[in-house]
Specification:
Elements: E1 3-14, E2 19-28, E3 31-36, E4 44-49, E5 54-57, E6 59-64, H1 76-82, E7 85-94, H2 99-107, E8 113-119, H3 141-150, E9 155-162, H4 164-167, H5 170-186, E10 190-195, H6 202-206, E11 214-216, H7 235-242, E12 246-248, H8 258-266, H9 290-299, H10 304-311, H11 313-318, E13 336-349, E14 355-369, E15 372-374, H12 383-388
Parallel strand pairs: 1-4, 1-5, 6-7, 7-8, 8-9, 9-10, 10-11, 11-12
Antiparallel strand pairs: 1-2, 2-3, 5-13, 13-14, 14-15
The structure holds zinc ion.
Length: about 400
């Protein structure tokens, strides 16, 4: 059999098949056609030497911002391969007024597979300094439902940024929150709730969330935390996680605090998914990219297999793409990330300018998107060597 690409001799980690072993991965066209030992490299047009590296499904970032008409929006195609990311979920940069434009101008033109959540606010994230739901007239649950129906192949759910400077307090805050829940139910999709300095507590919000709904920024500090005043993970949080509510990292520049994540993990509470919340204001730190964010969880004691699962198989399932994405199964889409595991001393910074030193750093060395090796892979994080010395 002829192959277009053969990724040779890497340690393949594919949680969707409970596979961790040295394997070759062969690609023909846009599909994975073989995952096996000692495939014949003379049959391949291009050979990627992955010996000493790990080979995983293309990473899926469940929270980022790639609508470039928003002040937060990054350009997905140059961004994603640098971090081994082949699929990205834009977390509500556009609302009912501008999702169509987001689709035409960005989603349909990108090499990267982009899905989107539709913001409850009809204007989406069109201003950086102005809460998109401070005026209740911007809340448009019916518009969200209509847009999801119209763009059901790419619009996969609903987003609300539930900070009090965005949704307001008291009755106004709750009215916005309930509108977002209603939009998710009526569109038969799911709701991602950004917790900020929220006007309600996480247990109060969880009472309205169903399995498949999601809390993002789950390890933020400040007033709205997954921990109670005694730093115990709320029982309601544990129960919600057990019943299938998703707890997503959404690192960002305000949403990951070492003490919170350390306390949670110590108490056995792990996130469901790892995501970056990459946007224009955190790409140059403290977030950088998916592999850096994943490396922070390795440092915190989450196993490599789980970190990979949280960044591939689990987000694929949430996006209803299991079997196609987030897997290296034969017949699935040829999205692959080859990751180097650098050992040394690396400075990792949370969203509150506190640092920790880790001894391992993942770096995307090669990214394959839909059977094509895309340029721009890896190496950016080498700066940490110098920082740590
Ligand atoms: Zn975000």
């Amino acid at each position: 059999m002829k192959y277009d690409i053969l990724i040779r001799g890497g340690e393949v980690i594919d949680p969707s098949q409970s596979l961790r072993a040295t394997r070759d991965v062969a690609i023909c066209g846009t599909q994975i056609v073989a995952v096996d030992q000692n495939l014949d490299e003379s049959q391949a047009d291009t050979v990627v030497d992955a010996r000493g590296q790990i080979v995983v499904p293309g990473l899926i970032d469940l929270h980022a911002h790639v609508y470039t008409h928003s002040p937060f929006g990054l350009d997905a195609d140059p961004l994603c391969p640098a971090g081994g990311v082949t699929t990205i979920l834009d977390a509500g940069s556009a609302g009912s007024y501008n999702f169509g434009a987001f689709r035409r101008e960005t989603i349909d033109r990108a090499e990267t597979q982009i899905f989107g959540l539709v913001n409850l606010s009809c204007i989406g994230l069109i201003a950086a300094n102005f809460g998109e739901l401070l005026d209740r007239r911007y809340a448009d649950p019916d518009g969200v439902v209509r847009v999801i129906e119209e763009h059901s192949d790419v619009a996969v759910g609903v987003k609300i940024r539930a900070g009090k400077h965005i949704i307001g307090e008291g009755e106004t805050g709750w009215a916005n929150f309930h509108d977002a829940v209603r939009a998710a139910r009526e569109s038969n999709t799911w709701l991602m709730v950004h917790i900020g300095e929220s006007p309600m507590s996480i247990p109060e919000m969880l009472a309205h969330l169903e399995p498949g709904d999601c809390i993002t920024h789950c390890f933020k500090g400040g007033s709205t935390r997954v921990l109670d005043d005694a730093d115990r993970v709320y029982q309601e949080v544990v129960e919600a996680s057990n019943r299938g509510v998703i707890f997503d990292v959404g690192h960002g520049f305000g949403s990951m605090k070492w003490e919170v994540v350390e306390a949670a993990i110590e108490q056995g509470f792990e996130p469901t998914t790892i995501s970056t919340d990459l946007h224009t204001m955190n790409i140059h730190g403290p977030v950088y990219d998916m592999p850096t964010t994943m490396s922070k969880f390795l440092m915190l004691g989450v196993t490599l297999e789980r970190v990979i699962e949280m960044s591939t198989t689990r987000p694929a399932k949430i996006l209803n793409q299991e079997g196609e994405l987030g897997t290296l199964r034969v017949g699935s889409v040829a999205d692959v990330a080859v990751l180097e595991r650098q050992e040394g001393k690396f400075v990792f910074t949370d969203s509150y300018e506190e640092t920790r030193i880790g001894d391992e750093l993942l770096i995307a060395s090669t990214t394959v998107r839909r059977g094509r090796i895309v340029p721009g892979g890896g190496g950016l994080r080498m700066r940490h060597w110098a920082d740590a010395e």
